[in-house]
């Protein structure tokens, strides 16, 4: 038996509503980077592709994840991209030096092909415009090309390229990480704020139905965070609907207890950005609430050394190919829980990225595809985390880690799907050595029964999946039982759990 110290109590009630979960928090990201496009989603060398050269097996894996929105085409790539290079007859498209990642961009895949791919797999696209080397004109032209039905220069050009119907892209990012010294065309907050406002203004004149994302800081580690948000939003507040957040974590020093506590940092990041948005709102006497688009997040550190050895100026080299282990999957689960806890303000989020590049899905060029460890918590949240996010009242034992104090062993979020009459408890046990007994009061959910208790567990925190072997995969033999309105279960040490209840 676990000792009394390893017992957590949770109370869940329908009345404790945070907000309806916007399904777009389960978004992802495809950048023209490494083998994400060339050798990833697109691979004419593969035996099973569609008429455009997109891999069927990859489409199926993306569809399994149910990705509602995909950010495209960058990332750092977008800050040097001429979108016009990627439309029109493929044989006349230029090969360009791609400066963000120092590769050759052949432009075999561009806006129309990507839109066709996304449509087929049932995802919306979150399109980014280049505010690095370009500005208002290129952005408004791209929007006209994509969204205007017909009867204008750019919309008729799209039609002449074989895409009669407008793509109707709703969500647009005003540049990418414009605070970063690595960014082509980096800007000061004042420069970015003015440019983003004027670009957004012109774009909303072309299509008033779009939503715009103003660039936030590249991470909490930036010296200008959160002043960047305060200054840029002062310019863009009236035209933008979201501000972006980006954050990646790693376990370089091998301190797993500290690594799994990184959700504390993410939570603090979100709270700080909310406060900054609300400060600008108050300053402007605005009635509008700014929402958060956490449009890059993941674990990223495994591939950093390998990337320094890659030859420049090749097409689709293997860049940022992190091989994820079991503890990475646990943190990814914790990060998804963090979004659910902020469902009232975080309305979009993109796991960066989707295929091959820091991704849940891996491929061999021309060969096999497989699921990385992080595929699973992402799949579970996307599949079962739709409905109303409820605020659980949690009493959990805690620990102190290197960078955080009072870290609850139990990290949890609860989603109530009224339509399907389902209640899902997502629970991470961060204790690396011991199981955690959890008792959860669900007396408000009369007539509900346990449908499934999914568990992702492994004795080896460093276990990985490969094309040949899936060492980390979930099972449904969790111990959750329901009696007199209380769910009780023992969560294995270091485990990700999805406890699903359904009305009988
Ligand atoms: O996702 C990889 C890179 O990380 C993106 O291109 C950039 O926006 C971020 O720095």
From TrEMBL:
**One Pfam family of this protein, by short name?**
ASD1_dom
Query: Which residue windows are transmembrane per the record?
Result: none
Q: What is its EC number?
A: 3.2.1.55
Signal peptide range: none
Q: What class of enzyme is it?
A: hydrolase
Q: Which SUPFAM superfamilies match?
A: (Trans)glycosidases, Glycosyl hydrolase domain
Q: Which family does it belong to?
A: Belongs to the glycosyl hydrolase 51 family.
Enumerate the PANTHER family for this protein.
Answer: ALPHA-L-ARABINOFURANOSIDASE C, ALPHA-L-ARABINOFURANOSIDASE C-RELATED
The entry describes its oligomerization and partners as: Homohexamer; trimer of dimers.
| Annotated protein name in UniProt | non-reducing end alpha-L-arabinofuranosidase
UniProt lineage: Bacteria, Bacillati, Bacillota, Bacilli, Bacillales
- Gene name linked to the record: abfA
